[in-house]
Amino acid sequence: MTSKSSYNPYAKLANFGNINPVLKTDAVAYSIYDDIDSFFDIGSTAREYGPSSEKSHLYMAERCSKNWDGACEMMSRNDKIALSNVGGINSKTFYIRPPPSDLTIGDVLVDNSGVRRFCDLSSCSISQESFNPLDPDSPIIKKYGQSNCGKCQPVCMPPDEPDKDILLNKVLDRPDKHVDLLVNMYKNVMKQNKREKYSNTRVGMVFDILDSYSKQNPGKM
What we know:
Elements: H1 27-32, H2 35-42, H3 46-49, H4 54-66, H5 70-76, H6 105-118, E1 119-120, E2 125-130, E3 140-145, E4 155-156, H7 166-173, H8 179-191, H9 202-216
Antiparallel strand pairs: 1-4, 2-3
């Protein structure tokens, strides 16, 4: 006969040990998935980390400036209108269009990545924070802006082999969307007497147009 003290009417469950859930942040997935679709994967934080968010713009711009891969290409094709360029450099050199803007999320990614890749930002201050403060392994994102000692004045130059640079070619596919970056490049190329270096290149063709504009409108560039 089974004693009352040892009787257990419930089946014994397996010992799962100590369960300590750890939140892991896939910053790329958070950034490229459309916000509504992301609710199924990452819950209500999708609005904070989706492709329209400041954190995603900052993270992807820095990442894609160093290596343009499939994730960058995917986000560059996002044709949803960006409410504002929340990942832009805080500098008078680059005009941030107020909403409503005609720039898509893809346009903004290409522009912000291009500025970080082709421009010397040493005159700008840098602030850093975690992409996801709840995850200790979350990547760091950077903001560039005016420093306490002076203005943020990016100096931009084309790469040595411009036609082979994927990101620059992305910029040149829609030069009308990246005027500030291209004008900055042009001014510095002229200052350094390197105009001929870029003859017979795609960026050189844009410089040809800026040459004509500069001659017709002296002092206005």
